[in-house]
Amino acid sequence: MPAPLIAIVAAHLASGRVRGWRRAGFGVPEPYVLALRRAGARALFMPPGDDAPADELLAGFDGLLLMGGGDIDPARYRQPAHSTLYGMERDRDETEFALVRSALERGLPTLAICRGHQVLNVALGGTLHQHLPDDEKLLPHGTPV
Q1: Per-residue confidence (pLDDT) for residue 143, from 0 to 100
Q2: Residues near 70 by Cβ (< 8 Å), separated by ≥ 6?
Q3: Using CA atoms, how far apart are residues 13 and 99, in angstroms rounded to an integer?
Q4: Tens of pLDDT along 94-103?
Q5: Residues 6 or more apart from 1 whose CB is under 8 A from it?
Q6: Is the pLDDT of residue 28 over 60?
Q7: Using DSSP, how many helices (H) and how many strands (E) does the chain show?
Q8: CA–CA separation, 62 vs 59, rounded Å?
Q9: Who's near 20: CB < 8 A, 6+ residues apart?
């Protein structure tokens, strides 16, 4: 039986982010790939912005991994942008939202990590708190207790 094939949408890498690359690129952090390999799966990256139907993009895949990254465009959950937003990639949003909806319709196993949880939440109609320190009921984000 062949190893399961897992789709991962790559993130944008700014020009100069990779030494020797004069132009921007796409990438996936190594820990995601290594974890999939340890689990006996194979990872295949897809760049954001492909306008093919999501069902076509997911054809042949056994799962979808929604990895971490920058913020989701708040227009997707009908909120104005907070001044602290960073790393928004509208074409990545578009691709991941289409893929997660297709994966859910097909019952395709989906693993959502960090930003991926947020994508899944918003795709299902949820909203987000854009800046956790603004909510005084929460512990400081990222600070050990």
Answers
A1: 52
A2: 11, 86, 87, 88, 89, 115
A3: 21
A4: 999 999 999 9
A5: none
A6: yes
A7: 4, 6
A8: 9
A9: none
| 98: Cα separation from own chain's centroid | 11
Spatial separation of the C-alpha atoms in residues 86 and 138, rounded to whole Å: 21
> Is the four-CA dihedral 52, 54, 56, 57 of positive or negative sign?
positive
What pLDDT was estimated at residue 36?
A: 97
* Cα separation of the two ends of the chain: 45
pLDDT at position 142 is 61
> What residues contact 31, with CB distance under 8 A and at least 6 apart?
none
CA-nearest of 12, 6, 2 to 88 is: 12
Report d(CA 64, CA 7) in Å as an integer.
5
The predicted structure's pLDDT at residue 141: 64
| 114 in Cβ contact with 120 (< 8 Å) | no
pLDDT, one tens digit per residue, over 81-137 is 999 888 899 999 999 999 999 999 999 999 999 999 999 999 999 999 888 888 888
Q: Per the structure block, which two tokens stand in for 55?
A: 């069902």
Give the Cα separation of 29 and 46 in Å (integer): 13
